[in-house]
Amino acid sequence: MTPLISLKRVSKIYGEPPSQTIALKNVALQIKKGEFIAIIGPSGSGKSTLMHILGCLDKPTSGEYYLENKLVSKFSENDLARIRNRKIGFVFQAFNLLPRTTSVKNVELPLIYSGLEKAERIKKAEDLLKKLGLEDKFQSTPATLSGGQQQKVAIARALVNNPLVVMADEPTGNLDSKSSNEIMAIFKNLNIDGHTIVLITHEADIAKNAKRIITMHDGQITSDKKNGNN
Amino acid sequence: MEIIETLRLALEAVRINKLRSALTALGIIIGVAAIILLISIGSGLQKYISSQFEKLGTNTIFILPGKIQVGPQGGPPRTVNKLTFRLSEKLEKEKGDLITDVSPFIELNITASNRGKSKITTMAGTRSSYFANLDIKTETGRIFTDNDNKASRKVAVVGQTLANDLYQNQNPVGKTISLSNKTFTVIGILEPQGNVGGIDIDNQVLIPLNSARVLTGTDQVNSILVKTASQETLPQTKEQVKKILLRTLSEDDFSILTQEQLLSTILQILGVLTFALGGIAAISLIVGGVGISNIMLVSVTERTREIGLRKAVGARPKDILSQFLIEAVILSLLGGTVGILLGFVGSIALSRFVQTSVPVWAVFLAFGFSSLVGIIFGVAPAIRAARLEPIVALRHE
Question: Which chain A residue lies closest to B16 (C-alpha atoms)?
Fold first, then answer.
């Protein structure tokens, strides 16, 4: 089976010489469908840069990135927007919900850019919110929700377009331990349902929920192993 | 993304930030209301003057003093007035079949006073036919008659403002009024006529022509009005008047204009004036546009994370561009609509003091101009929003 994601000698360099920062150095990585990967490492190790490139939010300076056998590292801005819209779901540390906007409207946002009809958008958004146990929070704005509830809305938004891969950047970083456990349980269940998940974290406790753990240091992958606990 | 969705998004953003939207639109509201108001005053003035001239009838010829001459030291231009009573008497004598009426007209600013109170006012010396010609009536008392004129009686018909200022709550009819230190008797008060283009028509006093001639002590008149039987005889009458005048005056000393010519000249000047007033108000609309630009730039900075998120979930640069551009246009159209309504209400309120009229073209002009302002001043912030890098925008605190 061909991998879902394949990185070949991917490097990312910020700035012009002599004050260059090398964020990624010749990274090679393959991700198969249905994997649950945690990328760990200290801050500045390049894990966020890696996620940005995997999520098509940023382009590598050199190297090749294949997503479903397509060389997306050569895609235009508009094509990348389409990839982010259809193929990738993002979950952020700070939730990044639109303020003063209801849960349903937040969740349906990616569908607006896919050009779906309003009735269909609302149905999909409500179904997902229901599935995550937020059936009584459809019309709530983020300010009236707890951190855990906000992150659930964000997860619903990431899933609404049925993406190939869900990218989660420190999804529990702003949450207490009870909410963190809840959110991680959701990710585990999603993986059981067949979703491919890439989780970025610096906490070993959170990372151990994944099936495969990749450790990064100074822009390079220093270890890549199966997680025996799972 | 479809245009209807973009529109919905932009409306949502305007609705969510109510106070900021209102404050942003305020600049446009004031600008558009100012345009409508100023144009309504200008075109009210045009309407009033047209109606006054139309009352005189199309069979009227105006004789006005000569052409403007440049002073000896190249100083300010001044008109040498060579129109006199004697001239009008000459016209009267030789009027023949074509000319039906000759009435000279004196108008100047004098001081009117009563028991220590005084006011600068416009005094007009006319024939009694003036009242009928211009459809002016008295509210109390009577107008002066041909006999008053023939006998040079010192009688005066005063306007409302003058009557109120000099006599307060008393009825001035039968009382005396001092005009340039000559004592006259008030015989009537005119119906209120209001204010036109900032000039109070009710601040005036009308006296018989011959009395005015005695009062001013000169033979000069401001203009001579000649009437003919009908519009058909107008060109011949003009020729005849010109022939008579040329016997004593040179070509440069007078101009003969028909009612239509004079009216169109005045309306042309007023049209330019109205347009200039609107233009000044349009400057305030540009200031309003800068306000929109400013607030939209703040909005882009404030919503950087939102823009980043939208891009992360699949918004293309042009989706972001149209969202912010449409938001700016909505704000300015909102301002334009409220401004037009406010301008209407304002011109109705103002019509108690000044004659106003809101022409349809002014409404379209204001509406078109405000949407143009929205597009022009919305472009820069929208481009800035569209160009934001998704990761930079997402990291923004």
Answer: A100
Tell me the H-state helices in chain B.
Answer: 3-16, 18-56, 85-93, 129-134, 146-150, 160-167, 209-216, 234-248, 259-302, 304-312, 317-350, 360-387, 390-395
> Which tokens sit at A163?
């993406």
Burial class (CB in 10 A: 0-12, 13-18, 19+), A64: middle
Q: What is the pLDDT of residue B397?
A: 66
Is the CB of residue A12 less than 8 Å away from at least one CB of chain B? no
Number of domains in chain B: 2
Six-digit token string for A20: 């260059």
3-state secondary structure of A13: strand
Distances (CA, A) of A82 to A77, B1, B6, B60, B360: 9, 11, 17, 77, 47
Point out the residues of chain B with pLDDT beneath 70: 1, 67-79, 197-198, 397
- DSSP single-letter state for residue B192: P
What pTM, to 2 d.p., does this model score? Answer: 0.71
Q: B314 to chain A: nearest residue by CA?
A: A85
Q: Which amino acid, one-letter code, is at A18?
A: P
Q: Mean of the pLDDT values across residues A36-63?
A: 92
Question: Are B99 and B239 within one domain?
Answer: yes
CB of A86 less than 8 A from some CB of B: yes
pLDDT, tens only, A75-106: 999 999 999 999 999 999 999 999 888 999 99
Phi, psi of B246 (to 5 degrees): -65, -15
- If asked whether residues B42 and B102 sit together in one domain, one would say no
Cα distance between residue B315 and residue B292, in whole Å = 24
Residue A1: what pLDDT?
66
What pLDDT is recorded for position B197?
A: 65
- Please give the residue range of the domain that contains residue B325: 3-50+267-395
State whether B127 and B217 are in the same domain: yes
Choose the final residue of a domain: B214, B248, B282.
Answer: B248
Could you tell me the two tokens for B246? 């040329």
- Residue range A10-40, pLDDT digits in tens: 999 988 888 888 999 999 999 999 999 999 9
Q: Which domains are present in chain A?
A: 33-61+74-226 (3.40.50.300)
Cβ of A178 under 8 Å from any chain B Cβ?
Answer: no
**Sign, CA torsion A195/A198/A204/A210:** positive
> Percent helix, strand and coil across chain A, each rounded to 5?
35, 25, 35
CB-based contact A84 B309, cutoff 8 Å: no
